[in-house]
Write a structure and sequence with these properties.
A hairpin with a 5-residue loop joins strand 4 and strand 5. The strands form two sheets. Strands 3-2-6-1-7-8-9-10 form an eight-stranded mixed beta sheet, sandwiched between helices. The longest helix is centred in the N-terminal third of the chain and has 17 residues. The chain is about 50% helix and about 15% strand. It is elongated and about 70 Å long. By secondary structure, it is an alpha/beta fold. Guanosine-5'-diphosphate binds next to helix 5.
């Protein structure tokens, strides 16, 4: 995903090779190239501004070092700044003291929530948990089936409303839903307590674009279930829209962490790199493919190294 950014940064650093102490003009020149590389990769403008200002300040203040030549020093500073905008520390799931831990997924339709539910289920099981996936995306009947499929693949229990058991629910927009997602989510938590599942992952409905009803539904589920984590899933391929979408979900639902999906794509991806800085919420997981094992805990330092390698 970050191939172009990677190339551009490498070429910016190339100009510093063989230099002794860097002059202000050298620093300005490399900072300018880094700035353009970040902007071209779709990193959000305010994030770039702060990034460049920090790089310049630290490069000017850098001591002459025995261990690192000036080019290496600048690379280290850029690395540190990348780690900083990506959140610094790895942030892990906070499990509830009294199970079940409730993890709610939110995001636009197509962001990768249902796939993520399967991935999380598989991962949690590997960590020794007993997860239950909950089909609270009742907007599309297919979503329930899709969750059952990924649940099966992951070998994880799926809680879904029975087909014959729910009536269609008329919504204010006139659209129909095959049940009440708030009720399903509540029932699922009660069922998880009864059946000793210690983590409940709630898949919620998305729309293709931000809309008030979607936000309200997600906020209602949040209110009713008091999740320990609300993970906002963002498709890294949507480019600059990622930042606006994240801000809208922050305001409409609020979330405790971000999952970057589709990092295997060839889009520019810089907007996804901005989401942490713009929302203040940590990136917790990254998805890199459709398969259930193409997923991992997000480590800011490893991502920074990957971009700079
Ligand atoms: P939802 O509408 O948010 O539940 O999104 P889905 O989980 O249905 O995912 C939408 C599409 O994206 C599906 O075709 C998934 O297979 C695909 N998908 C999900 N995550 C990834 C990923 O990390 N990489 C790629 N390449 N595709 C993904």
């Amino acid at each position: 995903m970050f191939d172009s950014l990677q190339d551009r940064l490498q070429s910016a650093f190339k100009g510093l090779r063989g230099k002794g102490k860097l002059s202000d003009a050298d620093i300005d020149a490399v900072a300018r190239e880094i700035r353009v590389a970040l902007l071209d990769a779709d990193v959000a403008v305010p994030v770039v501004r702060e990034f460049i200002s920090n790089v310049k300040e630290r490069a000017r203040g850098a001591e002459v070092s025995q261990a690192l030549n000036p080019a290496q020093q600048v690379i280290k500073i850029v690395n540190d700044e990348l780690v900083r905008i990506l959140g610094g520390e790895t942030r892990r799931i906070r499990f509830a003291k009294n199970p079940p831990t409730v993890i709610m997924l939110a995001g636009l339709q197509g962001a990768g929530k249902t796939t993520l539910a399967g991935k999380l289920g598989r991962w949690l099981k590997e960590q020794g948990h007993s997860p239950m996936l909950v089909a609270a995306d009742l907007q599309r009947p297919n979503a329930v089936t899709q969750l059952k499929v990924v649940g099966d693949q992951a070998g994880v229990t799926v809680f879904a409303p029975e087909a014959g058991n729910v009536g269609a629910v008329q919504q204010s927009s006139g659209t129909q839903s095959i049940g009440d997602p708030v009720r399903v989510a509540r029932d699922a938590i009660a069922e998880a307590k009864r059946t000793l599942h210690d983590v409940v992952v709630i898949d919620t409905a998305g729309r293709l674009a931000i809309d008030a009803e979607l936000m309200k539904q997600a906020a209602d589920i949040r209110e009713a279930t008091q999740p320990d984590e609300v993970l906002f899933v963002i498709d890294a391929m949507i480019g600059q829209d990622a930042v606006g979408t994240a801000e809208a979900f922050l305001e409409g639902v609020d979330f405790t962490g971000v999952v970057l999906s589709k990092l295997d794509g060839d889009a520019r991806g810089g907007a996804a790199l901005s989401v942490r800085s713009v929302t203040g919420r940590p990136i917790m997981f990254a998805s890199t493919g459709e398969k259930l094992d193409e997923f991992d805990v997000f480590h800011p330092d490893r991502m920074a190294s990957r971009i700079l390698d």
